[in-house]
Write a structure and sequence with these properties.
Number of strands: 20
Structural class: alpha+beta
Shape: elongated
Largest sheet: 7 strands, mixed
Strand content: 25-35%
Number of domains: 1
Distance between the termini: 138 Å
């Protein structure tokens, strides 16, 4: 993601950062500020991921002693945090970072209430089914707001470390993530993935029926967390304003629909087939022309035979059928012509007498 004041945040899969795509609606967003950046990334179900927060050389801590990074996953209100401490070799008067420093969030510590053990769980993307009914399931009601499904929200801010009056007890209970969500709850958003801490372990018993159970994706077991003794408060002025990095993770089909990724072009035509079709076109065109010429010659010859005086040939010509209207019209025309001929006056012959009588 583009750096903001020497802060670089990215999502990594298999040790490499994911390609990022600009938000098509970023220009129309009313909440777009200097401290907020939104990107889309392409993911697949089953991929394990980690969020990397890197401070580049030149970053200014100002009066802060730490940089606090908090990751909010999907609709969960609880964040997973990491801290980058001001190195001791920074100049006291400026607190400018000389060398880059980095932290990563790749797992989450949670308590399994059924077994009473603490474990760290890998973060991975999974499939999310969309239902057509109008009712929210129990999982959706427990998960609260689902408007953030399909997003990773990272907040980074400069902080000072302050001792707490009372120790903080960390309680993070393991919850089953959403496997399906109603279309009404999504409100038209095209989301087909979410983050899982559990993954289905399917064992097919028959060819038609598959029974699935859930198993934990445990990275490693861990001892219970120690009580928290410190609070991290952001700086009071503008230097304590959090930098927000939002990653909307989608599959390739959704990204193509949104216009983030160009659709896969059609494969090029086979050159051999294309050449064969190119050679066939003149041949077919020539055959069609010859056929049209032959038909024209036949029609022309038929017309001459119909008008000639040869009785042997004329008798073979089949007269065209006429409709009743055409026949009546021709008969009326003949009667009019005969009437006109009858009305022509007959001039009497003039006899001139040349005798002298």
């Amino acid at each position: 993601m583009p750096c903001e004041d020497f802060i670089d945040v990215s999502v990594h899969v298999d040790g490499a950062p994911l390609a990022e795509y600009a938000d098509p609606e970023a220009a129309d967003s009313k909440n777009a500020t200097k401290f907020a950046t939104t990107r889309y990334v392409e993911v697949k179900a089953g991929q394990k991921f980690a969020v990397h927060v890197k401070l580049l050389a030149g970053f200014k801590f100002h009066s802060a002693t730490h940089l606090r990074a908090a990751l909010y996953i999907d609709q969960e209100s609880r964040a997973t945090t990491k801290t980058i401490k001001l190195p001791p070799n920074c100049p006291v008067h400026a607190n400018v970072l000389r060398m880059s420093r980095e932290c990563q969030i790749e797992s989450r510590l949670m308590l399994d209430e059924k077994t009473g053990t603490w474990s760290t769980y890998d973060l991975q993307f999974g499939d999310l089914a969309v239902k057509d009914d109008w009712f929210l399931s129990d999982d959706e009601i427990e998960s609260g707001d689902v408007s953030s499904l399909g997003s990773l929200h990272v907040k980074v801010f400069r902080a000072t470390k302050v001792l707490r009056h009372q120790p903080f007890t960390y309680t993070a209970k393991l919850k089953k993530p959403l496997d399906e969500v109603s279309e009404t709850a999504l409100k038209g958003r095209d989301v087909s993935n979410n983050v899982k801490y559990l993954t289905p372990d399917c064992k097919k018993q028959t060819k038609q029926v598959a029974h699935c159970r859930l198993r934990y994706v445990v990275k490693t077991t861990a001892p219970p967390p120690r009580p928290g003794l410190w609070n991290y408060y952001p700086l009071d002025d503008w230097r304590g304003s959090p930098y927000e990095f939002v990653f909307h993770y989608r599959n390739r089909r959704v990204l193509q629909t949104l216009g983030c990724i160009a659709r896969t072009p059609s494969p090029p035509p086979n050159l051999a087939v294309k050449l064969e079709r190119t050679e066939e076109k003149p041949k077919v065109k020539k055959e069609n022309s010859q056929k049209q010429i032959s038909e024209s010659q036949v029609r022309f010859a038929s017309g001459e035979c119909g008008n000639c005086g040869n009785g042997n040939v004329g008798t073979n010509v089949v007269p065209a059928k006429r409709t009743w209207d055409e026949t009546k019209l021709e008969d009326d025309n003949d009667q009019e012509e005969n009437g006109k001929l009858a009305l022509v006056p007959i001039h009497k012959q003039v006899v001139i007498d040349l005798t002298n009588d």
